[in-house]
TrEMBL record:
The chain crosses the membrane at residues 711-735. The keyword Coiled coil does not apply. InterPro entries: Ig-like_fold, Sig_transdc_resp-reg_C-effctor, Tscrpt_reg_LuxR_C, WD40/YVTN_repeat-like_dom_sf, WH-like_DNA-bd_sf. One of its GO terms (molecular function) is DNA binding. It holds the Pfam family GerE. It comes from Salegentibacter echinorum. This is Regulatory protein, luxR family. It comes from the Bacteria. Keywords: Membrane, Transmembrane, Transmembrane helix. One of its GO terms (biological process) is regulation of DNA-templated transcription. SUPFAM superfamilies: C-terminal effector domain of the bipartite response regulators, Calcium-dependent phosphotriesterase. Residues 854-901 form the HTH luxR-type domain. The keyword DNA repair does not apply.
Length: 912
């Protein structure tokens, strides 16, 4: 199984290769590259391959290269047509019109051109084009139709001014085909000398030559010759010569087994030198153009430069295709082999295929579902019935309804699954018995035991049918309900490891006879979603329709074969693989079939290699970088980074990458270019791994690069940031210090102010207390004085009333005068005035300024009124009666010209 696992994947991968040319013969895989693919001119004049597998093509727009991943065009500085290309060591030599030189790879991986024309002697090269280049004894020779030039030691020397068509190295000599003069060799003096024994080649236009062991093959437009020491003679195969004559020979190449001829009119001829058979590949069976302008073989592939496009042919492929380009065959549903003949059953009929020719059997037109060979007889399940194929005749067995399949019972008896039921068919007596009660279409049948069969309905699922012992009548019939969610359309029934296996497009089920129920098939659980295509001895072929992969298994070991194009070639829902012999398989395709030689396939698999991926270029949005140095990309240029990779010699089926660094990414590379967008700055490593068949991985290659930080994160800017930060810290410190000092001063000022305010408040409070105290003292003093005067005045009044009763009138009068003097004591007024002024400073000054005509008596009354004393309280102080106070108040009001409504005390208190 390990051997099978190691080789089987190529079978499917090659099977699914894209093939664009069609003909009625088996052809190897042909891969077409159009001008749209390689993005250059359609015409390609020559082709060569380097030692590491890179293809170089001489194209009308310049030099084309293909590294297994991408095509690149390298135009000449003058924009000329490249007519020839030759790879020698690390140089690619090209020839053009009045121009030849070489291309080399610079440190960035890009090709640059060096012209050798400046080394040519002046006027040596006229209007010539270089059509051939080769290496001989370490020198490079360039051939035009007008001369031959030798490049040695960085110098160009013209060998001879002759018209030549071809040059080649044969038996350690440089051989030149001179037009209409035959073969010449170059001697040590760089002179052309005619070769011996070439009379047959005289006057022949030689277009190409190739070395075939000891012989030299010489091709003209219409013939092929062999040349040895004995001379020249026609090639000894008239059939091949006829093909050459009709096709117009253009190029020759030999291998150990084959002679490959490129023609002008008929594409490519692959001639087997041993069995003298030939395979013609042209526009009708896959090539893009019938004019082969050049070819080269490398690593099992033949590359063709065509007049229109580039093709790659796998001549030794174990896979060969038959594809019907007419549409007559249609989709192939089945293949069968009987009596050495191959039969195809398609949606258009039953065909025979022999000697690469397709022929419809008479009467077999129409949709054919299945072909079976039993007892050396070919049976066909057709849209119109069931038929036998005998001597290319379509003989009906039962044609009342179409049929899907045939299942052997025993001996010569078979069950035929038809559109309307099941028929028991006995081949010996040609009897047909339709099973009663089975009146629905049946796609296929499987036996549960000798008397119980399961029938698959195309739309309604499964039926379990118990038969009587003669197997010609039904004893019991039951429709089987699938588990919830099970699909009933296109449900199929199989026998797998002696178990009934049901597949409904998603899940594998089996029948449990003990509890009469349908349940999951554990052995096939991992194959859910896999359709069974073929039971090949101990192996089973599955098709995973969800992922488009094939899987070959014996349930102990499995081989998964992935293919993105699986359903583009296989017939959807009717995939079919047929084994013809131990090593030969045939696969039905929607436009033909494929032949697969597994023995050869396994042999070729041993040569499969998965090369290590190569980084061939690295660039940002502005420039390419030297691959020999660590690229350091400016941050402003890192928005789009491209890493170009190549796999020139590899059987890899994919290329993956993993990016490690500040950003981590992984994925698959397509078209050989990895584009990385918007990466952060830092150091990166990108790992490349090629993926081969069966998941085998190549040795990983890595590439390192650095993205510089942006200008604002550079070292100088970081140093500036440190200085700025320190300056900012200092400024903050200095600012905080100033702020603290200012705050301290403010606090001191506030404290001083509050202290002063506190002292002022205390002083004010003290003064207010003093004023209050003085006011109280003044009030008390005034009240005491008033009380005293009031008492004195009462005594004076009493004495006045009783003065006549006193004997000493003089004494009484003297007493009354003393009382009167005491009442009107000026000293008391001065004391009052002094105390009053202390409380009401500038009162008298202010009132006199407004009312200068006021008398001292008026001022005295004003002061008493200012103290809010009543007339009764004022009267004793002034030594007058209350009436007198009122009269005085009235007069004072008049002097002040106050309104009658104005309260005099309130006015004085308010205004002064």
């Amino acid at each position: 199984m390990k051997y099978l696992n190691a080789h089987i994947v190529l079978f499917i991968n090659l099977l699914l290769l894209s093939f664009y040319g069609f003909s009625q013969e088996l052809t190897p895989p042909i891969h077409n590259y159009t001008s749209t693919n390689y993005k250059a001119a359609s015409q390609n004049w020559g082709i060569d391959v380097s030692s590491n597998g890179i293809i170089y093509v001489a194209n009308n727009q310049g030099l084309l290269s293909f590294d297994g991943q991408t095509w690149e065009l390298h135009p000449l500085p003058n924009g000329g047509i490249v007519r020839s290309v030759f790879v020698n060591e690390n140089r690619i030599y090209t020839g053009s019109y009045k121009e030849f030189g070489y291309w080399t790879e610079d440190a960035t991986g890009a090709l640059y051109y060096t012209s050798l024309i400046p080394s040519v002697e002046k006027n040596s090269m006229k209007s010539e084009e270089i059509w051939g280049i080769l290496s001989y004894k370490g020198r490079i020779y360039f051939r035009s139709f007008g001369g031959i030039y030798k490049y040695e030691d960085d110098k160009i020397k013209e060998i001879d001014n002759v018209v030549s068509n071809k040059m080649i190295v044969y038996r350690d000599s440089l051989i030149v085909a001179v037009r209409n003069k035959g073969l010449f060799y170059l001697n040590d003096e760089d002179k052309l000398k005619p070769m011996a024994n070439q009379k047959l080649l005289q006057d022949q236009l030689i277009v190409d030559m190739a070395v075939d062991n000891e012989a030299l093959l010489i091709g003209t437009r219409e013939a092929l010759y062999t040349y040895t020491k004995k001379g020249a003679r026609l090639y000894p195969d008239k059939k091949l010569l006829n093909i050459i004559r009709d096709s117009e020979l253009n190029h020759i190449m030999t291998t150990d087994q084959s002679l490959i001829i490129g023609t002008v009119k008929n594409g490519l001829v692959d001639y087997d030198k041993e069995d003298r058979t030939q395979l013609v590949l042209n526009r009708n069976n896959g090539l893009q153009n019938n004019t082969v302008l050049g070819f080269v073989q490398k690593h099992g592939n033949l590359w063709l430069s065509l007049d229109n496009g580039i093709d790659r042919i796998e001549l030794d492929s174990p896979i060969h295709y038959y594809t019907d380009d007419t549409g007559e065959l249609g989709a192939v549903y089945d293949l069968a082999f009987q009596d050495g003949r191959m039969y195809l059953g398609s949606n258009t009929g039953v065909y025979t295929f022999k000697n690469n020719k397709l022929r419809l059997i008479e009467g077999a037109k129409g949709h054919t579902w299945n072909l079976s060979v039993f007892n050396n007889t070919l049976f066909a399940n057709h849209n119109t019935g069931t038929f036998r194929v005998v001597d290319d005749s379509f003989i009906p067995i039962e044609n009342t309804t179409g049929s899907f399949n045939m299942t052997p019972i025993s001996g010569d008896s078979y069950f035929i699954s038809t559109y309307t039921g099941i028929i028991n068919f006995n081949f010996t007596n040609n009897s047909l018995t339709r099973l009663d009660r089975v009146d629905f279409p049946v796609k296929n049948i499987a036996f549960e035991d000798d008397n119980i069969i399961w029938a698959a309905h195309p739309y309604e699922g499964m039926y379990r049918i118990q038969l009587n012992s003669d197997l010609k009548s039904v004893k019991a019939l039951k429709r089987i309900e699938l588990p919830r969610g099970g699909n009933t359309i296109n449900t199929n029934i199989y026998r797998v490891n002696n178990h009934l296996a049901l597949y409904n497009g998603k899940q594998w089920l089996t029948y449990n006879s003990f509890n009469d129920s349908i349940e999951g098939f554990e052995e096939l659980a991992k194959f859910n979603g896999h359709k069974l295509l073929l039971k090949d001895r101990e192996f089973y072929w599955f098709n995973d329709t969800r992922k488009n992969v094939l899987e070959l298994t014996n349930f102990d070991n499995s081989t998964i074969i992935a293919s993105e194009k699986l359903n583009t070639r296989l017939v959807k829902n009717y995939e079919k693989i047929v084994r013809k012999e131990d090593s030969v398989y045939y696969v039905a395709l929607n436009d033909g079939f494929a032949s697969v030689n597994l023995k050869k396939l396994f042999k070729d698999m041993e040569l499969i290699s998965i090369s290590k991926p190569v980084v061939k270029g690295f660039q940002d949005i502005e420039k390419r970088y030297n691959l020999n140095e660590l690229p350091e990309i400016p941050f402003k240029n890192s928005r789009n980074i491209s890493v170009m990779t190549s796999l020139p010699v590899s059987d890899a089926v994919g290329l993956s990458y993993e990016l490690k660094g500040e950003d981590s990414r992984s994925g698959v590379i397509k078209n050989g270019s990895l584009n990385l967008h918007n990466l952060d700055h830092g150091e990166y490593t990108v790992m490349f791994t090629a993926l081969g068949p069966q998941g085998k991985l190549s040795e990983s290659s890595s590439f390192d690069f650095v993205i510089s930080p942006p200008w604002y994160l550079s070292s100088w800017m970081k140093f500036g940031y440190v200085i700025l930060f320190l300056g900012l810290v200092f400024c903050i410190y200095w600012f905080n210090k100033l702020k603290l000092r200012k705050q301290q001063l403010l606090l001191e000022q506030k404290f001083e102010k509050e202290h002063k305010e506190r002292l002022s408040a205390l002083e004010k409070e003290r003064l207010l207390n003093e004023i209050t105290l003085k006011r109280k003292e003044l009030a008390n003093t005034t009240m005491v004085a008033a009380k005293k005067n009031e008492v004195l005045m009462e005594i004076q009044d009493e004495l006045g009333k009783d003065k006549n009763n006193f004997s000493n009138q003089f004494k009484v009068k003297h007493i009354m005068n003393k009382i009167n003097k005491a009442v009107k004591n000026k000293d008391e007024w001065k004391v009052f005035e002094t105390n009053f002024n202390e409380l009401h400073a500038d009162f008298f000054k202010d009132i006199l300024e407004r009312y200068p005509k006021l008398s001292s008596k008026d001022l005295k009354l004003c002061s008493y009124l200012k103290m809010n004393l009543t007339s009764k309280e004022i009267a004793p102080l002034m030594g007058i009666s209350v009436r007198g106070v009122e009269v005085h108040r009235y007069r004072l009001r008049k002097k002040m010209k106050l309104d009658k409504k104005e309260n005099l005390s309130n006015f004085l208190i308010k205004e002064f």
